[in-house]
Amino acid sequence: MRIKISSGMKGKKVNSRSNKNDLERLLRETSLPSRIEIISLLKEDCVTLSELHKRLKANGVKVPVSTVYRAVNNLFSTGILDKKNGEVSLTPAGLFFADALNCMERLMNFEYLELATDFLLSLPPELRFGIHHLSECEKVDFTETRKLSINVLSSVREGGLYIDRVVDPDLFEVMIKRRLQGATEKVISAEDVVFQKIETEIEALKNAGLNKEEMRAVEEKVELKVLTPPLQMGIIDRKVGIVMLIKGNYFTPFFVTDKKDAIRWLESVFNYYWDLAKPLDEYIEGGMEGLRKMILSAVSKV
Length: 302
Known about the structure:
The protein contains 13 helices and 12 strands. The chain is an alpha+beta fold. The protein folds into 2 domains: 8-108, Arc Repressor Mutant, subunit A (Orthogonal Bundle); 117-300, Endonuclease Chain A (Endonuclease, Chain A, 2-Layer Sandwich).
């Protein structure tokens, strides 16, 4: 059990303890020996003080019982611990603080943190800590990504969310086949490749040998907007996520994940950029409908 809500809390207003002095006191207190370990041990359970002392000792933290008592009392005064019926537990604020500490630790250990700077600064604060998910992903070298992309795109059933600069005709042909089977696409294109993407789509449609109705159906499955964020990303069927971070002329390997928490974070990142992206109307008269007419007209002339 992760949270134990004391009966004494019910119906009471919770003091947020959010003023600057309280925050400074919390940070000072948690910087002292054994405090971080205590918070970490309490993330998953409520324990007595004697049991907490035993668990600290088992984890290599050798401090006197008196130190544990004092630490618990001081952390209680900051609002991140609760004491009830002889047991100690994290308050909701304490759980958030413990999660933040865990995220910060993984963030500081992320080997591509320097290359992630532009990406992190492009996000709102509430999304930045999610980058810790990438430290748990499989890494794929850039030279292997084309093969990976074809394999992943060939398996699309429901649809994908993409932020990319892709202009590979073979990949476009795979995506057209999946759209013909009902898959949808939401694409954020980098500004400098928008029209190159359109040309590649036209070429891929010519090679696909579809009739006019099929082409129309395929193009109806795509939504396109324009933005140039410092990454490339794909989320397939809400089950697989692929992302590469970019900083100037440098980039990370592709990170690949099928973990639900990571996928949810990537979806939030995509939705944030989607809201920022420019509609196609700013580039093509008539927006998406104008684009569909342009593509169908170009293919029909062949």
